[in-house]
Amino acid sequence: MRVLLVHNRYRSTSPSGEDRVVDQEHAALEEAGHVVGRFERSSDEIAGLSLGRKVRLPVDAVWSRSAARDVGATISSFEPDVVHVMVDGRIVRSGGKDLALTLEEKGYEWIREAVSQTAPTEAK
């Protein structure tokens, strides 16, 4: 199976457990015989951005046209067999390349909205 891991790494000066989990997942998938690709960005990249790009970071954190384009190109060239969309640490949607291309086109907000509408409410 072809699995594409998409992850934003934390700053290298502040390594995170999440970064380690992604690295371990990659190794485990390869050990199980899967072909694993990666698309990663790093928070370390922020230091090299122009002032104008830094000003846009709050907006780009929600939806970045350039990141969507880059992920889309990676999806098209790698052609993963399965896509899992995670929200708040759990898989909320799974699919194939069609889901990946929909995410490229529409972003993730529609999934977040669907999840929030179906999430159980807490009893008060």
Describe the structure.
The chain has 5 helices and 4 strands. It has 124 residues and is of the alpha+beta class. It has one domain (2-118). The strands form 2 sheets. A two-stranded parallel sheet has the order 1-2. Strand 1, helix 1 and strand 2 (35-42) form a beta-alpha-beta unit. Helix 3 packs antiparallel against helix 4. The longest helix has 15 residues, at 17-31. It is globular, with a radius of gyration of 16 Å. The mean pLDDT is 76.
Provide the fold topology:
Elements: E1 2-9, H1 17-31, E2 35-42, H2 51-62, H3 65-78, E3 83-87, E4 90-95, H4 97-106, H5 109-118
Parallel strand pairs: 1-2
Antiparallel strand pairs: 3-4
Helix pairs in contact: 3-4
